[in-house]
Amino acid sequence: MSLPDSYLSVSQPAEGLYKDKGSKFIGYVFPVKDLEDIKEQIIWLKELHPKARHICYAYRLGFTPDEARSNDDGEPSGSAGKPILNTILSNNVHYTLVAVVRYFGGTLLGVPGLIQAYKEASLEAFAAGEIIEIEPMETLEVRFSYPQMNEVMKVIKKYPIQITSQEVNNDCMYQLHFAKRISAEVQLALDKALAPY
């Protein structure tokens, strides 16, 4: 599946709180890159909340349904991870982890109460955070001889391309950074610019 031109995610970690019958539900939302990132955030939350009864979470990494997962962490099946995941899906965010830390207040909430609490804590975290649009970027290394620099620079000026590093000698190298959506156009323009006469 190809990447979309842009997608939504959260700009930075945020935290929200929901209370019900003495139980405290602390919602956290994190931007994440991969499974390793998710693992680190969960470990950090366990260290931050050693006395918490449950740390339930859900995440969505890429753009296919199987890249979204949830975890009930010992709560009744479907009462925690699923409502958390639903808040991720309804906000249409990707590369996002939402975790809810529960401190038990002594009163059982029942499955409907848990579903409500985990959902509300997740929504509170989203409300405290900021959802932003992210455009997938690409980095390309271009090698060319010094006399070709003029042609390469024409391409760079024509598109929104950033030069992130460069070596200029008889043989030159530019590292270019640009939006993935213009990748094919940029590649074509560079191929034409560097084609032997």
Summarize the structure in words.
By secondary structure, the chain is of the alpha+beta class. Helices cover 33% and strands 34% of the residues. Strands 2-3-6-4-5 form a five-stranded antiparallel beta sheet, sandwiched between helices. A three-stranded antiparallel beta sheet has the order 8-10-9, covered by helices on one side. It has a two-stranded antiparallel ribbon with strand order 1-7. A hairpin with a 7-residue loop joins β4 and β5. α2 packs parallel to α3. The radius of gyration is 23 Å and the shape is elongated. The protein starts with 6 loop residues before the first strand and ends with a helix.
Strands, count: 10
Helix content: 25-40%
Q: How many helical elements?
A: 5
Overall pLDDT metric: 94
Strand order of the largest sheet: 2-3-6-4-5
Shape: elongated
* Euclidean distance between termini CA atoms: 37 Å
Keywords:
197 residues, alpha+beta, elongated
Q: What is the gist of this entry?
A:
The chain contains five helices and ten strands; from the N terminus they run βββαββαβαββαββα. With 197 residues, the protein is an alpha+beta fold.
What is the secondary structure topology, with strand pairs?
Blueprint: E1 7-10, E2 14-20, E3 23-31, H1 35-48, E4 54-60, E5 68-71, H2 81-90, E6 96-103, H3 110-128, E7 131-134, E8 137-145, H4 149-158, E9 162-167, E10 171-179, H5 183-194
Antiparallel strand pairs: 1-7, 2-3, 3-6, 4-5, 4-6, 8-10, 9-10
Helix pairs in contact: 2-3
